[in-house]
């Protein structure tokens, strides 16, 4: 892939991070008003499916997609199961914590994706080589940073002044420590599951390169699964009634931009560049989420979150530097020390 194509994918991935954080922020705001996250998952996927189905038919009106084998269909079902798990864990974790913590914990995804890529042989690892050593060190540093974000909040840097005023006026109290830790645990589990999802998605799209078809079928399975989960948790209650306020806005936004459009873009990136390339953009969500959380949700910004996020970023870029060195060396036959940071000329990392 040429530099123009790489820039296109990079721009789309950066836009995807803004889209995700926006969806997290709207969902958090709606859940504060009492919206059920399980019903939210169902409605957002159902609406996304109603958008994806006609889009898929229009795209393939002149060229029918290849037939889907049993193996591919089984993989699509597995993807939907992992996706449902990620959505449920992520949204529940955000409800107990904040979008800022969610974005920090998702920084684990590059590290876990690298581990799964090695296990699945999508990534080569030779511990006798300094490049592989750098990848391992960077991965461990990222995990250490995520643990700091989870277990250490520290001093509140901003937000206390208007937060205390709002608490006295409305009787709203900050989340206690147990809820924060529970939310962090759920988000960490979601990050591990998301990493595994990246590997399975790449495996599938490489064998069946039809992004819209893959996304639509997976969304269909997810609609069924989220409906079952919502019925088990909420039963038949008023939770299924969407209010024409922040609840409806968050569902519409999530369905169109997060579930539908972003999913297609990510699937396309998996096919072109591989799972680690997609995972490498997750650290951008930290800065975006911190800003949006403080501005729109009046979240506190804690010292522990800042320190942990910085450590995660360091570990992440060590891994990316090592990958750039490896790729530059293999394609241009140059010494590893001469490869520039994050240089890439291939279609697959």
Automatic annotation (TrEMBL):
Keywords: Membrane, Transmembrane, Transmembrane helix. Residues 330-349 are annotated as: Disordered. SUPFAM superfamilies: Multidrug resistance efflux transporter EmrE. One of its GO terms (cellular component) is membrane. Residues 340-349 have a biased composition (Polar residues). The keyword Iron does not apply. Pfam families: EamA. It is found in: Membrane. The keyword Transmembrane applies. The chain crosses the membrane at residues 37-60, 72-90, 102-122, 134-152, 180-200, 212-236, 248-269, 276-296, 302-322. Residues 22-150, 182-320 form the EamA domain. One of its GO terms (molecular function) is transmembrane transporter activity. It is a multi-pass membrane protein. Belongs to the drug/metabolite transporter (DMT) superfamily. Plant drug/metabolite exporter (P-DME) (TC 2.A.7.4) family. PANTHER family: WAT1-RELATED PROTEIN. This is WAT1-related protein. It comes from Cicer arietinum (Chickpea). The gene is LOC101507769.
């Amino acid at each position: 892939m040429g530099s123009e194509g790489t820039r296109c994918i990079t721009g789309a991935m950066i836009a995807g991070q803004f889209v995700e954080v926006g969806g997290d922020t709207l969902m958090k705001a709606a859940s504060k008003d009492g919206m059920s996250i399980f019903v939210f998952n169902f409605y957002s996927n159902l609406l996304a499916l109603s958008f994806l189905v006609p889009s898929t038919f229009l795209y393939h009106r002149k060229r029918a997609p290849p037939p889907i084998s049993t193996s591919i269909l089984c993989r699509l079902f597995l993807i939907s199961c992992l996706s449902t798990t990620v959505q449920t864990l992520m949204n529940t974790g955000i409800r107990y914590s904040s979008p800022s913590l969610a974005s920090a914990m998702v920084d684990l995804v590059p590290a876990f994706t690298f581990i799964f890529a090695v296990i699945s042989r999508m990534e080569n690892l030779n511990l006798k080589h300094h490049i592989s050593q750098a990848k391992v060190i960077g991965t461990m540093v990222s995990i250490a940073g995520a643990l700091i974000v989870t277990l250490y909040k520290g001093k509140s840097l901003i937000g206390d002044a208007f937060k205390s005023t709002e608490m006295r006026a409305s009787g709203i109290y900050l989340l206690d420590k147990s809820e924060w830790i529970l939310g962090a645990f759920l988000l960490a589990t979601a990050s591990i599951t998301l990493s595994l999802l990246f590997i399975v998605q790449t495996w599938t799209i490489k064998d069946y390169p039809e992004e819209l078809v893959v996304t639509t079928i997976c969304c269909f399975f997810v609609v069924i699964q989220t409906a079952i989960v919502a019925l088990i948790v909420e039963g038949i209650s008023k939770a299924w009634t969407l209010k024409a306020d922040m609840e409806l806005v968050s569902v519409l936004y999530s369905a169109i931009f997060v579930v539908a459009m972003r999913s297609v873009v990510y699937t396309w990136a998996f096919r072109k560049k591989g799972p680690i390339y997609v995972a490498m953009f997750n650290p951008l969500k930290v800065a975006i989420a911190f800003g949006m959380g403080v501005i729109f949700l009046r979240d506190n910004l804690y010292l522990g979150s800042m320190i942990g996020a910085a450590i995660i970023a360091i570990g992440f870029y060590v891994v990316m530097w090592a990958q750039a060195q490896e790729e530059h060396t293999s394609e241009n036959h140059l010494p590893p020390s001469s490869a520039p940071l994050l240089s890439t000329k291939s279609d697959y990392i």
